[in-house]
Amino acid sequence: MDDEEDPIVEEIPVFLSKNLQDSLYLFQYPTKTELPNHDESVIINCCVKPFTQEVKVDFALNIDSKHYDRFKGEQFAVAADGKNTFGAAPTKGGERPTYKRGIMDKQAFTSTRSLTDISKYIVGIYTDKEVHLSPLTSIVQLRPALSHFDKEDKRKKAEQKAQNDDVDDDEVLQQVTVKFARDKGAASKKTKEERGTYDSFVQRIVDEPWCETYWHARATPTAELERQKLYATNHQSNLSLTLNPGDYLQKLLPYDENVQKVDESSELLPVYNKAMLKTMPLLDQLRVLLKDARMLSFGDVLEILMEQADPHVTPEKVLALLPQVGILLNGNWVPKSEVVFPEKMLSHANGVSAEQMIRARDYILYRFSRTACLYRTQVMSATQLPPAETFDVLRTVGKVNTTKRWELLLPPDKEFEQKHPELVQRQELHWRASEQYYNEMDWAKETKRVRKRSTRKSESQSSTAMPPPATTTSAEA
């Protein structure tokens, strides 16, 4: 669409203010309509729990209003505290009375968090043709708390329990049955530990003390000073809009030289960006590229290095270092198994060691050098790996085709093999040196299958005194 058909009406600058990013709460009143205005309400008390981000606000009630039932208000006060607390001195160390005046003169509102993730929500102010945005700390919903009813129920239960304790225990005889619970082992222990962790977390929330705060009305000078913090004071961020795309991206995501690297032996794999790749030696760059891409042609390796890392890198230098971290397979390069499965690494499914995974992957690479396709069951039988680990190893070099067989990720690169016959010959010598070992793996698989059949056969003929001669012949073959 042309600019003439959709003209720019007005450009409005947008600023971000972080002055209140750790203390800006948004209050919602889902039980109130838009008619009552809380700006003119009288706040008796206000408390906050910083850890759980809970808020409690006590709004004063107009007990002199003609719409207020004083008799009912006095009944609520007596029901909550158990007695008339008007003019009574508070007991030392005792619980504070709910209503000090002996009448329900306030209404408490407690908060619940409506959203757990508020990173997508902000508040904004539009003034003087500018928009100022401020991130929120929490969004809470304030609802009436009927704590006076809870106190009444609690007190009645305590009184009833005290009356029942006065009854002589000898008058009532009951049969007692003793049951012993069986130990459910590690599962039961784990469940208790998880429950204990959750219970301790809930108890921590309950035990967190309320912090009393000051409530400043909208028209007070203190509230006006806090409201001014919603405006951004630094307007230099407009200069970023005049930068070119490359400089703007660098300013938005600057590279930190002190980035903490992830240990290769840990479960988390390191993540490298373009800036980190430039700081690595060429050998490490090749190791990262082959491990991430799984299989690359030499042309792709050279192109990525020249565009992302070093535009002056030479093909001769790359070819000299590639065999140290990669294996030439049908003209393409794949990472060595030691690069894919570092030492002390365990598989995610069954905890298979890195040594077994490396052994299985080397077998797969050898078989792909001799054949174009493999069956997953064939690899499982030869390597004795579980199904999940076999799938993980095959994914490092292959993919499933339409015939449900595994083939290499890239087609053979005959042109590279013709240009560099010495590398092809060197790799072939390596395959021939290991050929006997991999053939023994297949032979062990066939032997195990024959022995299993001979066992079944001997079991079926267990009634005869002479063992079957066919078993020894087939096993030796």
Describe this structure in words.
The protein has a six-stranded mixed β-sheet with strand order 2-8-5-4-3-9, with no helix packed on it. It has a three-stranded mixed β-sheet with strand order 1-7-6, with no helix packed on it. A two-stranded antiparallel ribbon has the order 10-11. A hairpin with a 5-residue loop joins β12 and β13. The chain has 477 residues and is of the alpha+beta class. α7 (282-293) crosses α9 and α15 (421-460) packs antiparallel against α16 (469-476). It contains 16 helices and 13 strands. Residues 259-268 and 448-477 have low confidence and may be disordered. The protein has helices at 70-81, 147-165, 186-207, 221-228, 245-252, 274-278, 282-293, 298-309, 315-325, 337-340, 354-370, 376-383, 387-395, 414-419, 421-460, 469-476, and strands spanning 14-16, 25-28, 43-49, 54-60, 106-113, 122-127, 130-135, 138-144, 211-212, 326-329, 332-335, 398-400, 406-408.
Measured between the Cα atoms of the first and last residue, the distance is 78 Å
Tell me about the biggest sheet? 6 strands, mixed
Strand order of the largest sheet: 2-8-5-4-3-9
Order of SSEs, N→C? EEEEHEEEEHHEHHHHHHEEHHHHEEHHH
Number of strands: 13
Residue windows where pLDDT falls under 50 for at least 5 positions: 259-268, 448-477
